[in-house]
């Protein structure tokens, strides 16, 4: 990223915007995950106070604001969004603390790596041989590389958890839909059964009614066709 003097004294010219945007794109090139380190985006050191972070944010937000860069509005909007998102992370005490913990872990891992290098040299009989990280600049760069790695690891975990959460919500919704369809099918079946049952009852009543009328008509017809014997008359004397 920029030197400390460039970070402390940002300009407002078109060239300064181009410089800033170029550095933002460099972050993208160096990391699979874009703009994960808000300190790098705002071009400040992690030990800077929140009040100074806010000043830096205001300076950069003016620098990259789309209205200030009419010839580069699309890129300016992208940079403005990145700067704003980074400030929101560092403005919040909890998320800023998490970012600082990443730096602490990166320093601890780097120091452990250096200790292992020295141990190896000592084992090989070269205890006084220098290592690249003896140079303060290279030591700082080693920490920087580790910071980027840890931010990337953290982002991968976040994406994995998000994906798992989405899959869980999807499975839950699919189960809900299946249950809704089952309830709907049961309700329709019950409704059809009730309608069919009523139809069967009506048909049976109609059949019973028709059968009764038929029997009565047959009985009447049978009685009409029967031969009635003559009445018995007593003989007169």
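^ structure tokens above, recovered residues below v
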């Amino acid at each position: 990223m920029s030197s400390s003097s460039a970070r402390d004294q940002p300009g407002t010219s078109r060239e300064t915007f181009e410089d800033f945007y170029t550095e933002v794109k460099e972050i993208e090139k160096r990391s699979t995950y874009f703009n994960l380190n808000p300190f790098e985006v705002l071009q400040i050191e992690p030990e800077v106070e929140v009040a100074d972070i806010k000043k830096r944010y205001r300076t950069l937000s003016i620098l990259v604001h789309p209205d200030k860069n009419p010839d580069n509005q699309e890129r300016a909007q992208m940079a403005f969004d990145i700067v704003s998102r980074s400030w929101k992370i560092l403005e919040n005490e909890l998320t800023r603390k998490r970012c600082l913990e990443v730096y602490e872990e990166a320093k601890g891992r780097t120091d452990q790596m250096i200790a292992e290098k020295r141990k190896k040299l000592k084992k090989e009989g070269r205890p006084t041989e220098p290592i690249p990280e003896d140079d303060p600049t290279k030591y700082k760069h080693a920490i920087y590389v580790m910071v980027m790695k840890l931010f990337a690891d953290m982002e991968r975990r976040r994406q994995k958890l998000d994906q798992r959460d989405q899959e869980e919500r999807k499975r839950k919704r699919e189960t809900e839909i299946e249950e809704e369809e089952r309830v709907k099918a049961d309700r329709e079946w019950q409704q059809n059964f009730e309608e069919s049952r009523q139809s069967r009852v009506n048909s049976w009543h109609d059949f019973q009614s028709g059968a009764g009328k038929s029997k009565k008509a047959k009985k009447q017809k049978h009685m009409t066709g029967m031969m009635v014997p003559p009445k018995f008359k007593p003989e007169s004397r």
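The mean pLDDT is 79.
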